[in-house]
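3.2 Worked example (two chains)
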Amino acid sequence: MKKINLIIILLVHVNITAQDLLLEDCYKSANINYPLAKQHDLLAKQSALAIEAIKTEKLPSIDFAGQATYQSDVIEFPFSLPNTNVDPLNKDQYKATITMNQLIYAGGLIDTNTELKSINLKTKQKQIDVNLYQLKQQINQLYFSILLLQAKETLLIAKLNQLEIKIKEVKAGIKYGTLLPASDQILEAEILKIKQLITENSLNRASLTSTLSSLIGTEIANSVNFKNPEIEIDLTSEITRPELEVFELQKEQITKTEQLTKRQKSPKIIGFAQGGYGNPGLNMLDNSFQPYYIIGLKLNWNVFDWNANKKQRQSLKINKDIIDTEAEVFTLNTTIELNKQLSEIKKITQFIDDDKTIIKLRKKVLKAADSQLKNGVITSSTYITELTNLYEAENNLSTHQIQLLLAKANYLVIKGK
């Protein structure tokens, strides 16, 4: 098992330090490296020790006892027997015993108790899985925020490259007198502004990447490329959240606790053997140190408990109903969240269609502005305005595309995929 975990850790590490980073890599890394994940093994060790302790009840128990007493009076015979000479008992008496008890029958109480411990372990481990699963929402927010900054940087660099090409054309126009002087300075100012935005964007990305690295427990280099995930949503599949598994395990816990409670009323048969050495021994008339032993069976059975056991089991059944209502509420709230997410997906999809139409129009306008700038019909400021309009339209499209991916990713997380 340790070898498998080591292989997984190495694979995740390789993916995260490679040139491309996938969203799934972040999920896997968080499940392995987040501090809470360590409790899986700790709980398993704790449960194993508890089960071993319970199973020892099937083994014989050995007790040693010693006693020395002095009493104010002892048994005396009020008459004398003919032809006998019985010494009076000593008032100081001594006894040392070794007693062994062996449980023979307990109505399956021990086995049921060990089964309950195993279910308790599964429930606690699944609750850890729930807490780790909830990290996906945080990972999504960070991952797609970085994707937005990454896409924005790509557009800024493209705009910068276009302006650097354009400024060469403008300077040539100024040189040959086709464009007014100082036309290039407006472009140079815009270039400096874009470089500032690229620097700011890079710092923001580094900050978010550092936060994501801390969350998933693995260092992510700034040179890593965050890839857009390919996400398909299935509207027909059922909700498979780990919380629902916790509810089922909690009901299993109650069922097993009911069985344990019922079996606590079962009769218990215990075999015992006692060996001793004392003065007096079992023969009270022999006033000397003697070895002795006793072998026998004991029966313990609480026949009547005023229905306390029955009422405990009835209370446990009510707990089952409470868990059912909690599961129903959780499913209802999850369904509402899924519907909200679907509405968001539809809205963003419509925005993307509009963005594509706007970009086509903006490109036509910019093409015309480019021709007019070359011919001195418009100023550099007007050209920059149209270029910025196209950049904003492309940025809106890129933003909406990533927002759509985020909405789909959140939809899958809400559904339990």
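3.2.1 Second chain
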Amino acid sequence: MNLPFLLARRFRKSREKTRYLSFISASSTIGIGLACAILIILLSVMNGFQKALETDFLSMVPHVEYQAAQGGLQDWREIVRVAEQHPGVKAAAPAIKLSAMVQEPGRFRGIQLRAIDTNLEPAVSGITRYLPAAAWQDFIENPDGILLGKGLADALQLRVGDRINLIIPQLQQGNALSAPQRINAEVVGIFAMGGELDFQQAYIHLAAGQKAARIDTEAASVRLALHNVYAAPAVAREVASEVREYAFIHDWTRTEGHLYRDIQLVRTIMYLVLVLVLAVASFNIVSTLIMVVREKQSSIAILRTMGASPKLIVATFVYQGSLNGVIGALFGSLIGTIAAALLPDLLGWLEQALSFSLLPAELYFISSIPSDVLVRDVVLVTGVAIATSVLATLYPAWQAAKLTPVQALRGQ
């Protein structure tokens, strides 16, 4: 078992090798290494986007929401009770969704206003993760308080303690517009999720939302938080079958599902690129090994006359060609793993140094490039790189094994 490997190492280090052959051999190793490193980095970035979608963005967006078809819900507590009996539901809380306008210099700005129950909201939302604990406590104690996203507060040039006037359009029967409702609220906290929601959302108390919406009931919707966000459509249907109230059903896959589909599409393309890039990089191994076989014809003839079997010759050149792929794959995967782990910090420093943003927060659901290195991706990339390298050696090795001593010594 060791003889083919020893011969492969001897051929690899042979002084008879030309500079051109050495260059081709090194380029194949470097090509496979670069391919592995780049693919691990790209897959880690895609993993980071998916993780940010699950843990950050969807903590602020309802996984499932039941919205009253008209006016408010007659008994939101019953919906909460039914929903929390489902094993897939983590928690449920009431809310009122409003569209509001706030006046900026020279124009009006539209925002999404959510009226929430401060006792139940932390169980279904990540709002408390993105603002100081003192700000949340101030919001609880101030019934006229409002929480603004950082981007929204910056655009309106508002700080904690300032007051803001909100204009809420009102619809009557037949969708006729009536006089808008006005709310004057005090900014008690500013949350910063680091994405487009910072420029769109604001939170007020449930009682204030009831007054602003002019509804007779306490809530107009119930929001569910799920253990598995990808089970949202199924859970929404199952819970709805037990709810007796007439309501519209929304889940995040309908409103924000395009983000997840985009991530999965790019990930699938990355896997296809993985195979294609490594296949192209492996062609250098084929060309290198073919030239090595030609160069080592006399050595092959000597080995055959000494009794070496075709199987030993095949194994020798498979080992020699595979060394390029194994070395490139291992070093490339190591470099790619380290680079992927350091990528967010490196890009953050680069953005700060050059005063620019790769992902403007007002346009994207996340404002920085994330990275999440998964062992399965590293193993997959390394395994495919080694496998393609081994496959690339089979044809040249088979050609070497076909050489007879007479053909090899004649140089045919």
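3.3 Remarks
Residues 2-55+259-410 form one domain.
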